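Name: Protein-L-isoaspartate O-methyltransferase
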Amino acid sequence: MRKDTIKHQGKRLQLAKVVEDKGIKDEKVLDAIKKIPRHLFMDSSFEDHAYQDKAFPIAADQTISQPYTVAFQTEVLQVKKGDSVLEIGTGSGYQTAVLCELGARVYSIERQQELFKKTKLFLSKIGYRPRYLSFGDGYKGLPEYAPFDRIIVTAGAPFVPKPLLSQLKVGGRMVIPVGKDLQVMTLFERKSDTEFEKTEFGNFRFVPLLEDKN
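Structure predicted for Protein-L-isoaspartate O-methyltransferase:
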């Protein structure tokens, strides 16, 4: 296992400062960025890029999201300790680790098998234990574990998958980047069985959320 050094920790403090300067206010989210060894989520040859505020390619044509984007989505979610959170797109597991740091019970789906296997092994190795990691189609969610307090989609969705909205608790929040080439970060708050309140934030760029490609 690669090391996490004082130097890495110093770089994380700087990264958290950059993210904070961009407008992130949630202390718990900033603390998670300060704590999680992001360099371990990336290939060792790219370690220099780990604490810059940018997305970076990882296995299976996926990316590890930009720290600011991770922080932004997490802040919008307003995760409380003990919340059940469904994450669509486990990817490198970095966002998963952030949610675990906040005390969430995380259920996560990844559709790339090689990435799923690698991340599952890796997360437990560095001490993050999501409740359930699943290999499958994120569009379908995880009905057997629903309803969820929070749902986070970490890939661009050309449309909002209905199954995900249906798996959200009343009072729950779902954050999802919606759009084809450029995504609008969108929050859905479930007000009742039939009512959702929608709030749109700025534009973000994500890798696409692909359906039924397994």
